[in-house]
Design goal:
globular; four-stranded antiparallel beta sheet; alpha+beta; single chain
Length: about 725
């Protein structure tokens, strides 16, 4: 019989459920068992064939978890393979221990709760156990003097394991626990193919303390976030592989606008919700048709924040915040449409129409339409000084922060629009001026009194309940003086964006002749960046557009009819205080030479050649229409369209967000008319195309990821396929 070392996987589940001290002792025990496991063609390969001395000594139930307790010595075996090991192995002299296990560790190497003496005692016990194992595995006798090659191999392995255990005790760690696990670099005799010196990285990867620390930081598969990231990585590989196709699984039509949010398709003014996850349309809820007074003006999807305790169980599920035409703010369940909360905003003195985020999923802003007096009132000389009303809420739990007015007397007569974003109040003027104010400073300086929803109040001679009909919300923020100005810029059509690192902004000079020219300037000193004037030299009906990349990398995306440029900010080599705009990568459409020659022959036989240039966004040439970013898969998607006559074809291309490499192209089977309004969503394994046709006819085409088969190849072609009409909830769907 040959005795050799074997390895089994360490049961990490038991280690992760233990304290750091107990985990260290357990890991050590399991590794010794796995190392000294005796293999033979018989039943000795089963775990039950371990010597009982090992099963008793290393069983986790028989070990103490307190740091101060000594490791238990092996107990009397219940079944023996050879002569029984002594109950208490004789102590090994320090000199012999030094010879067998290598030089002793320095006296000052212990850390935390483990002293040097405790570490020496633990190492000594492990060495005794190792030689007791040799005594058992060799069938009795002195393992040192025997001539059996198996015993010599076991002895050599034991010495390496003793060195490994000794070295493991002296690694650094805040709690003194730093035992290393199996490392092939420390066992060259057992692994000749991996006899290269072990580097520190290999040791760190198997350090118990590092394992426990990384577990606390959420680096292992049992943590939901890590599992989700791994699943998204697998999904990205599945989507980009060649055998994966996207199939148009069903289509629906509506006479009202269609909206999409996180796997849910909303129709009939949010009265009907359909799940886009299943291959067949599945209606989540459908409400009766509402009256015009209950029409929904705007909506936001509200999701549960992480790491916070919420007052109601319903707060942990996704919900929909909707704003009705009668100034009601409702919170609906995203899955059932049930009304969870109702807030009455204001009486008829203003009409709230828009919802937006100040801080996404934290602070919400409700904005009114611009306040204008009727023509008769203006002719009578009545003047209205309030232009807009803003109501600000903290979400989940939904709480009222305050309501304020944007007044002509404070901000000027030419205010055309206002917004709140990332703690900044943005005021836009008719002459292209954009001014920024600190919104938090406005709240602190001009808030007269805080109010809570559902509480009674007495305000300016009115008494009622906050958020209840007919009183609504009090205007408790009254700006009496111009707030401190943070920044001011002039741009054509009030186009103004902030982003990048360090902070930069993008504007177009406030002259019509400069349309299509973008300036990238430093927010710190308004200095123009090197190569900061970006112009897409093209001749097209639709202008090019530019914006900061939504992946928070600080890059800039500039989209033209046939070219997409991804730009980045970097330090200028000659001037470290100035930033330079450099090209990261480009994406180009697949089109032929735009110069076309036509030949005309006159009656006299003379050949006349006419040369003309097509527009850069001519429908007969492939043109970029939509550029989007899928943040969960880190993919950049583009939609390019070619229309010849009345038949237009489009395809969605998926690119690597880091380098712009084309990974996959998905054809859209339906005809694409460039004169219609289109929206395309790429959301993980789903592609959604929403089209608005004349006379308010809306269509929704749902594509889902499928495995490549012959049948799917047929469905992926542009030829007409058989469609089945099914009726669900009174709505007709076209299924393939």
């Amino acid at each position: 019989m040959t005795t050799r070392a074997a390895f089994i996987s360490v049961p990490w589940r038991k280690i992760k459920q233990s304290s750091p001290e107990e985990a260290g002792s357990r890991l050590c025990g399991y590794q010794w068992i796995s190392h000294c496991r005796r293999l033979s063609p018989t039943s000795a390969q089963r775990p039950s064939s371990y010597p009982a001395v090992l099963r008793a000594a290393f069983h986790p139930r028989q070990r103490r978890s307190t740091p101060s307790s000594r490791p238990l010595a092996p107990t009397r075996p219940e079944a023996r393979l050879g002569p029984a090991a002594p109950e208490q192995p004789p102590p090994v002299p320090a000199a012999e221990l030094h010879g067998r296990c290598g030089p002793a560790a320095p006296q000052n190497a212990a850390h935390g709760n483990y002293s040097t003496q405790r570490a020496r005692e633990a190492t000594e016990v492990w060495c005794r156990w190792a030689f007791a194992v040799i005594h058992l595995s060799c069938g009795g006798g002195d393992g040192v003097r025997t001539q059996s090659s198996g015993c010599l191999s076991a002895l050599r392995s034991t010495v390496y394991w003793s060195r490994l255990a000794t070295a493991g005790l002296w690694c650094r760690g805040p709690c003194g626990l730093g035992l290393f696990g199996v490392s092939k670099g420390l066992l060259p005799d057992m692994y000749p193919q991996a006899a290269a010196p072990a580097d520190s990285r290999a040791l760190r990867d198997h350090n118990v303390f590092r394992f426990l620390t990384r577990r606390a930081h959420g680096f292992f598969a049992r943590d939901a976030g890590v599992s989700y990231r791994k699943n998204l990585g697998l999904l990205r590989k599945l989507i980009c592989q060649e055998s994966t196709k996207f199939k148009n699984v069903w289509t629906t039509h509506s006479a009202s606008p269609i909206a999409y949010e996180r796997g849910r398709i909303y129709l009939d003014n949010y009265q009907c919700c359909i799940s886009s996850i299943a291959q067949e349309p599945r209606i989540l809820y459908q409400k009766p048709k509402c009256s015009k007074s209950e029409k929904i003006e705007d909506a936001l999807l509200l999701e549960c924040p992480l790491g916070e305790m919420l007052p109601s169980p319903s707060d942990y599920k996704s919900s929909l915040i909707v704003l009705t035409v009668r100034n009601w703010l409702l919170r609906l369940s995203a899955d059932s449409g049930e009304i969870l909360e109702k807030i009455y905003l204001a009486d008829s003195y203003c009409k709230f129409r828009y919802l937006s985020w100040d801080t996404p999923q934290e602070v919400m802003v409700v904005k009114s339409a611009q306040n204008k007096l009727p023509a008769a009132a203006r002719q009578a000389g009545i003047q209205e000084s309030v232009l807009f009303y803003l109501a600000v809420f903290q979400v989940l739990p939904l709480s009222f922060i305050g309501m304020l007015e944007i007044n002509k007397k404070i901000f000027g007569n030419s205010v055309t629009d206002v917004a709140v974003s990332n703690g900044i109040l943005i005021v836009m003027y008719s002459m292209g001026l954009v001014r920024l104010y600190n919104f938090q400073t406005i709240l602190e300086q001009f808030m007269e009194q805080p109010f809570d929803l559902g509480h009674e109040f007495n305000w300016n001679g009115q008494a009622g309940v906050v958020g209840k009909y007919p009183f609504g919300l009090p205007r408790n923020i009254k700006i009496t003086d111009t707030p401190p100005l943070l920044f001011e810029a002039s741009s054509l059509e009030n186009a103004f964006q902030i982003g990048g690192y360090p902070w930069h902004y993008i504007i177009t000079p406030n002259k019509k002749k400069h349309k299509g020219i973008f300036h990238i300037c430093s927010l710190k000193d308004n200095a123009l960046a090197k190569n900061g004037i970006q112009e897409m030299k093209c001749c097209s009906l639709e202008p090019d557009w530019i914006y900061f990349h939504p992946d928070m990398s600080g890059r800039i995306i500039h989209v033209g009819p046939n070219l997409i440029k991804v730009l980045k900010l970097k330090e200028d080599k000659n001037n470290t205080e100035q930033m330079e705009v450099a090209e990261d990568f480009t994406i180009v459409t697949n089109r032929e030479n735009c110069v076309s020659n036509t030949v005309t022959v006159t009656a006299s036989g003379r050949v006349v050649k006419k040369r003309f240039n097509l527009l850069d966004d001519d429908p007969e040439q492939e043109t970029f229409k939509i550029v989007d970013y899928e943040d969960e898969l880190d993919l950049l998607s583009t939609v390019a369209v070619t229309q010849i006559g009345s038949d237009g074809r489009a395809h969605l291309d998926i690119h690597c967000n880091e380098h712009g490499i084309l990974l996959k192209s998905i054809p859209l089977l339906e005809s694409w008319d460039v004169t219609y309004s289109h929206e395309v969503y790429f959301d993980k394994d789903l592609v959604l195309h929403i089209e608005q046709k004349p006379n308010r006819r809306f269509s929704c085409y749902v594509y889902q990821m499928v495995c490549d088969t012959a049948k799917d190849d047929e469905c992926s072609s542009h030829e007409k396929t058989e469609r089945v009409f099914c009726k669900k909830g009174g709505r007709i769907f076209e299924c393939i």
